[in-house]
Every structure is written in structure tokens, then in C-alpha cells.
Design goal:
The protein is α+β, with helices and mostly antiparallel strands. Helix content is about 40%, strand content about 10%. It has a four-stranded mixed beta sheet with strand order 1-3-2-4, with helices on both faces. Helix 1 runs antiparallel to helix 3. The longest helix has 14 residues, at about 35-50.
């Protein structure tokens, strides 16, 4: 699916409508190291609690960055109330969950849940997102070391193999 270059929310909606998705799992491309089992748990939490969105608990330092689950219905409601708000349409997570205080009147009717990360992922010294060339080089070293043809890199395996005291930056 290819949608608007300038409107992230419109892209989400277009992709959801084209695929008839009831739930959208947003995964940021700049955070390629994530845990598939935790992503599944985020979606399960959304379905079991019957909420509009589920985010990772930001109050607990963790290495799980760049994904959340949100319902298609919630995206439609967000689109209807943010027509002229470019920031909200670019940063859908900010609108709905990460910083709800930015939109106290508009998002009070949305329900959300937080998922606490598994202890394995509670770390702060492990860079997993790509914002700079140095970040890219670091993640590439991780991929070079841990990727197996046709498989997905298990973030838990990466963290456990390096040990608690070794920073990934030393790969």
C-alpha cells in the first residue's frame, strides 16, 4: 500500500481499509529490533481488554521501542477530530497514548492500556532505534552478528547473549 507522504494517519487508514483490518499493529521502521512475542502480546491485550489502543508502559525503562496496537475504529475517530492538526496526524501515538496531556479534551473518550515489558527487556543502555548514522552502523553490526537466513532476530537472544553488563555498542 502506498498512501500520502505527508499524512501518517491517512496512510494507516488507507492500509487498514484496503486490507479490511480491525486492528493495526504499528511498527516504526526506525526501530527494527523488536520482540515479536511482545508485539503479539500487545495485540492480545487490545483484544482481551477491548480498548482503543495498547502501548508499552513508558514509565518502565525498556528496549522495546516503536510499536503499539490500535483499532481501525479508533483511527477513524482520530481522523475525524484532527483534520487540521498536522502534528497529531503525523504522530498518532502521541495523540492517543504516549502524551495524552497534549490533547486532554480531544482524547478523553479513547480507552487505552499499557503493557509492562518482560524483565528481559528492561534495559536502558541498549540502543535499538535508528536516528543517526552511528545508530545505523550499530544496528547493522547486530544484524551481521545475529541474523540467520530466513529467520527473525530474537531481541531476547541478542540481549541474553551479550549479558547485562555489555552494551550493544561494543559489537
Amino acid at each position: 500500500f502506498r498512501g500520502s507522504e505527508d499524512d501518517v494517519l491517512d496512510r494507516f487508514l488507507g492500509a487498514a481499509e484496503q486490507t479490511n483490518a480491525g486492528v493495526i499493529l504499528r511498527i516504526c521502521a526506525d526501530a527494527p529490533l523488536f520482540d515479536i512475542e511482545t508485539a503479539d502480546a500487545v495485540v492480545r491485550e487490545l483484544l482481551e481488554k477491548n480498548v482503543d489502543a495498547v502501548f508499552m508502559d513508558g514509565d518502565t525503562p525498556h528496549v522495546l521501542a516503536g510499536f503499539e496496537a490500535i483499532t481501525h475504529a479508533a483511527l477513524k475517530r482520530i481522523a475525524a477530530i484532527t483534520l487540521d492538526d498536522q502534528f497529531a496526524r503525523e504522530h498518532v501515538g502521541v495523540f492517543l497514548g504516549i502524551h495524552p496531556r497534549y490533547y486532554p479534551d480531544k482524547n478523553k473518550d479513547f480507552t487505552r492500556a499499557l503493557l509492562t515489558p518482560h524483565p528481559t527487556f528492561r534495559a536502558t543502555r541498549v540502543p535499538v532505534s535508528i536516528d543517526t548514522q552511528e545508530d545505523y552502523d550499530h544496528v547493522k553490526r547486530v544484524y551481521d552478528r545475529f541474523y540467520k537466513e530466513g529467520d527473525v532476530i530474537a531481541l531476547e537472544e541478542v540481549l541474553l547473549s551479550l549479558g547485562e553488563n555489555e552494551a550493544l555498542g561494543h559489537i
